[in-house]
Amino acid sequence: MKGKEPSAWDKALLLTRAALDKKAGDLVVLDVHAHTSIAEFFILCSGRSDRQVQSIAQGLQEEAARAGVRPYAVEGTQRGHWVLMDFSDVIVHIFYEPMRQFYDLDGLWSHAPQAKLPASYSKLIAQLHGSDTQLSQ
What is the pLDDT of residues 25-54, one digit of tens each? Predict the structure, then answer.
């Protein structure tokens, strides 16, 4: 990796954008630094199939590598039900939708505030959420 390691926030934004580029659903970024020593941010998102979960994970790895960032560990890509990607200060959880509901990390970490994303990210999340609503009708 060349140069300085990106900040946790910059890394979270990079990974969030990569997940959104792969149409990750229900994406939230939780600011967990006050609640745990294992990370600054958790990114939670969902895919509609195991293939999409795998695609999101692959997209994150590729985009991170272009920025000179490598995960310390990646688990769960084979099955595509819950992929955990550890980028040290940012941990990404990519769920197949039913698994996300079952494990309910959103509920377990409900005390952690959602990070305020830049307007362009929030707009993209809203657009993706709107297309998810249209697909389910």
Answer: 999 999 999 999 999 999 999 999 999 999
74, pLDDT greater than 90: yes
Q: What distance lies between CA 5 and its chain's CA centroid? A: 19
Report the alpha-carbon distance of residue 128 to residue 105 in Å, rounded: 21
Under the banding of pLDDT at 50, 70 and 90, the label for residue 125 is confident
SS (H, E, C) 113-129: CECCCCHHHHHHHHHHH
Residues near 97 by Cβ (< 8 Å), separated by ≥ 6?
A: 25, 26, 46, 47, 48
| Residue 41 contacts residue 29 (beta carbons within 8 Å) | yes
Q: CA distances (Å), 115 to each of 12, 25, 27, 120, in order?
A: 10, 17, 11, 14
Q: What is the DSSP code string of 71-90? A: -SEEE-TTT-SEEEEE-SSE
Q: Are strands 90-96 and 82-86 parallel, antiparallel or unpaired?
A: antiparallel
Q: Which residues pair with 124 in a beta bridge?
A: none
DSSP-based helix, strand, coil % in the chain, nearest 5: 45, 20, 35
pTM over 0.90: no
